[in-house]
Amino acid sequence: MKNKNVAAIFAFFGGFVGFHRFYLGQIGLGVVYALLFVTGISFILGILDGIIFLTMDQQVFDAKYNRKYSFLERSRDTDFRRPSSRGNAQTRSRSRRNQTRETIERRHRPTRSRVRNNPFKQAGIKKFKEFDIEAAIEDFQQALKIDPNDLTIHFNLACAYSQTEKADKAYEHISRAVEMGFNDFAKIDNHDALAFMRIQPQWEEFKTNGYTLRKQLAAPQENLLDNDLLLDQLKKLNELKEKGLITEKEFIEQKTKLTRQ
Fold first, then answer.
1. For residue range 140-167, what is the model confidence (pLDDT) as tens digits?
2. d(Cα 116, Cα 120) in Å, to the nearest integer?
3. CB 195 within 8 A of CB 162
4. Residue 161: which of 149, 171, 152, 151 has the closest Cα?
5. Minimal CA–CA distance to 2: which of 53, 48, 44?
6. Domain 121-208 is in which class?
7. CA-CA distance, 179 to 158, in Å (whole number)?
8. How far is CA 82 from the centre of its chain?
9. pLDDT above 80 (res 255)
10. Judging by beta carbons within 10 Å of its beta carbon (0-12, 13-18, 19+), is residue 159 exposed, middle or buried?
11. Are the C-beta atoms of residues 68 and 24 closer than 8 Å to each other?
């Protein structure tokens, strides 16, 4: 290891012949200094180098002149900490067992649980936590282009739109998340980021409708024509009219009574 203080002393007292450069392993520069001895320039250069060495930070000096020694020390440390061949064999064995276990788990894991690589989703979450809401919305929209069926992205978008007081957008994405299977309704009721959405006039109706914008279909009314008894009575009533046993007026009155029952 070269010492910067020693290099400075050599520069002050032997710099005119490049002694400090030879010490630092810079043979070429040392020769140049020696050749400049006749001109007297090397005296000035030696003094300047000595001042520079004394004022130079130790880490900077080591980076410039002790790099190869640092590399050798790291190499020795690495060799010293290198595990034995037996340890390597045990490590490889454990690694193979772990890989086999992970492979089996992946094979039996539901397909939907495999998380797709979606950097925009993670970037959006990070920006949302940093209160850069508009930028988070842009990232979540890009994330939906990669995976439009990720219900958590829709939920996060709803939170972001609620924070920016865009209630309609918030309702839209909460509705999509719920329709895709999001069922943590307590989170919808209590999440701070959805507070603006919950104070809107349509909130109670939205909640009653199952947290979706899709209209609930009303129960179908009973089709009177599916009633076999009614059909039989109407058929007989029509036969009486065709035989002339009842008038058209009587037919209409009786038909009205039957269909109103």
1. 999 999 999 999 999 999 999 999 999 9
2. 11
3. yes
4. 171
5. 53
6. mainly alpha
7. 14
8. 37
9. no
10. buried
11. no
The two structure tokens encoding residue 208: 């009653």
**Backbone phi, psi, residue 147, to 5°:** -140, 85
> CA 187, CA 148: separation in Å to the nearest integer?
22
Q: Is 109 left (phi over 0), alpha (psi -120 to 50) or beta?
A: beta
More confident residue, 1 or 75: 1
For the chain, residues classed under CATH 1.25.40.10 are 121-208
In SS3 terms, the chain reads as: CCCHHHHHHHHHHHHHHCHHHHHCCCHHHHHHHHHHHHCCHHHHHHHHHHHHHHHCCHHHHHHHHCHHHHHHHHHHHHHHHCCCHHHHHHHHHHHHHHHHHHHHHHHHCCHHHCCCCCHHHHHHHHHHHCCCHHHHHHHHHHHHHHCCCCHHHHHHHHHHHHHCCCHHHHHHHHHHHHHCCCCCHHHHHHCHHHHHHHCCCCHHHHHHCCCCCCCCCCCCCCCHHHCHHHHHHHHHHHHHHHCCCCCHHHHHHHHHHHHHC
- 241 to 119, 160, 225, 233, 244: CA distances (angstroms): 77, 70, 20, 12, 5
pLDDT one-digit tens code per residue, 81-129: 444 445 555 656 666 666 655 654 555 444 444 445 899 999 999 999 9
Give the separation between CA 137 and CA 169, rounded to whole angstroms.
Answer: 11
Whether 28 contacts 18, CB under 8 Å: no
0.70 surpassed by pTM: no
